[in-house]
Specification:
By secondary structure, this protein is α/β, with parallel strands linked by helices. The chain has 2 domains: about 50-130 and about 230-340, 3-Layer(aba) Sandwich (D-Maltodextrin-Binding Protein, domain 2); about 135-225, Periplasmic binding protein-like II (D-Maltodextrin-Binding Protein, domain 2, 3-Layer(aba) Sandwich). About 45% of the residues lie in helices and about 15% in strands.
């Protein structure tokens, strides 16, 4: 009997405690399944490696350099190695061999390679005017004074060689019979030869014209002021590589064009880029060089037809078969057409 009474009391106590206990809160949310927590992250695509060459260290390549400095190549998913391949001939050889499947190089040397059977095409413009200054000794006052004198260029067949011959002809001087043109090397070597009396004149581009003037030499002509369309440097690829790597080529070109705009709009970036790649320690030279090239960069995304025809005419003076080439045959405009406007 006592047992039944104890059970009754126990049941009563349980009921009382249950009545006094607070109402249960909402059930806790179920935790996410372990499998969901361990879901694999989105795969990270490794940047596409590509080697891009350029011919000689000159500020006309600033759009390439600025593309690297500003991160434009990285934003296109590319791991670009920019390589100075030296003279145009060496750069063209690297293009043909695949050592550097894309390069910034002169249209004149590109045409020479095409005439020799090279399967190259121009897909974009880097610098589409003549950026040279004709520097001479102080005793020369006009281009006509160059008759009988010695003029230095980097390499025969390169852009400087063609521009020099063009300027001489435009001013009534025959480059083949009335002057002596020598291969001397890069701009520093040519200025040294000019100072030492081995040359009477040479072509340079900024900042070397300022260096020349500081040393008492004379600048006779600034070809950029002539406003002549001229594909000084263009983006060149082999057609075979382009067929197999079209997407990479398009992204490289997009980054180079973006680099040109970044160079123009961001003075700090532009000056930093020139200081690094031209190895300039003089802030005044850096600022002057930037101001000069900012006027012409960025240019049109493709070389202008008139400039290509000028190159054809210049090459044809040495290689008559060039006259059979039309400007449109040198260019593949399809990559530029695919880029967002």
């Amino acid at each position: 009997m006592r047992c039944h009474r104890a059970l009754g009391y126990s049941a009563l106590l349980v009921m009382l405690f249950a009545a006094c206990a607070p109402a249960p809160g909402p059930a806790p949310a179920a935790s996410a399944p372990a499998a969901a927590e361990a879901a694999p992250p989105t795969a990270v695509v490794a940047p596409e490696p590509v080697r891009v060459g350029f011919a000689n260290v000159t500020a006309v390549h600033a759009p390439l350099w600025a593309a690297l400095e500003s991160g434009a190549f990285t934003r296109q998913g590319l791991a670009v190695e920019l390589v100075n391949l030296g003279p145009s001939q060496s750069t063209q050889a690297a293009l043909l061999s695949g050592e550097a499947p894309m390069a910034s190089v002169s249209a004149s040397s590109t045409l020479n390679v095409i005439l020799a059977g090279g399967d190259l095409t121009i897909v974009g413009a880097v610098f589409d005017t003549m950026p040279y200054q004709l520097v001479t000794t102080r005793d020369l006052n006009a281009i006509s004074d160059l008759q009988g004198k010695t003029i230095g260029v980097n390499r025969f067949g390169g852009a400087a060689d063609f521009v020099l011959r063009y300027v001489l002809r435009q001013n009534g001087v025959d480059p083949d019979t009335q002057v002596s043109i020598l291969q001397v090397g890069a701009q520093r070597e040519r200025l040294a030869a000019l100072r030492g009396g081995g040359l009477h004149a040479t072509l340079v581009d900024p900042p070397f014209q300022t260096i020349a003037e500081r040393e008492g030499l004379r600048v006779l002509v600034d070809t950029a002021e002539l406003n002549i369309p001229y594909p000084q440097d263009v983006v060149v690829v082999s057609r075979e590589w382009l067929r197999a790597n079209r997407d990479v080529a398009r992204r490289v070109l997009a980054a180079i064009l973006e680099g040109g705009h970044a160079f123009h709009e961001d003075r700090e970036l532009g000056e930093r880029t020139l200081q690094r790649w031209l190895q300039l320690d003089d802030p005044a030279l850096v600022a002057e060089t930037y101001a000069y090239f900012q006027r012409y960069i960025p240019g049109p995304p493709l070389p202008r037809t008139e400039g290509l025809q000028l190159v054809i005419d210049e090459v044809a003076a040495v290689k008559p078969e060039a006259r059979n080439v039309r400007p449109q045959e040198l260019v593949d405009p399809s990559l530029v057409a695919e880029l967002p406007r």
